[in-house]
Amino acid sequence: MADLLVDAGNTLTKVAIWEGEKAWQLFKLPTPRFLSHPELLTEKLKSFIWKRVGISSVVREATDALRKIFPNATFVSANLNLPIKIDYKTPETLGADRIANACGGLEFGESFTVVSAGTAVVIDLVRDSVFQGGVIFPGLKTMAKALNLETSQLPEIETLQRFQIPGKSTTECIESGILITTIGGIKEVLKIYETDTILITGGDSEILKKFLENAIFVPDLTFKGISKILDQN
Prior knowledge:
Layout: E1 3-8, E2 12-19, E3 22-30, H1 31-36, H2 39-45, E4 53-57, H3 60-69, E5 74-75, E6 85-86, H4 96-104, E7 112-117, E8 120-127, E9 130-138, H5 140-150, H6 170-193, E10 198-201, H7 205-208, E11 215-217, H8 221-232
Parallel strand pairs: 1-4, 4-5, 6-9, 7-10, 10-11
Antiparallel strand pairs: 1-2, 2-3, 7-8, 8-9
Helix pairs in contact: 4-8
């Protein structure tokens, strides 16, 4: 019997089966759609029986909905028995995804940096199995949306793949500006952290990984962490 793992983020809610040492992603739903129609989740999962259910949620409304669907699930938080220690002024505000990613990173050693690239870019430091804190700044699409909302003539960029400096069109200028800001910010933080192991995960990690030559791409890092937390609890 396998474990069911759920990662509810600001943009997507991802669901996976965990067997052995691997997560098999079942499906993903836009989080707003899941919140409007929680029956979509139960409909897709109604024929399964789970050994354990582990959930990481950073959306309060999603947490409430998931508690109703899975009343016996383990929800990731700093209050659990964790495989890492947490050195953070406000552990009660620490995102479940950050905790899960830090725990999942233990598969790669006791000291490492996690770069999680999604709605926000979060760069966290774990040293000697102690979560030390991190840095947060807007993600690629968040920056693109902000530029469009706060200006009258700049378009919102849907895809951020091209890196052209100097840009030869407004679109190229925005794309390059967002990418160089994000990549430069990540690299500056990495200089300060000085860890040999850099893990990159999250929805925009495939775009950014090619600019971070030494980073290890771990798309299922959050699921790895949820599984480790289930083992501890």
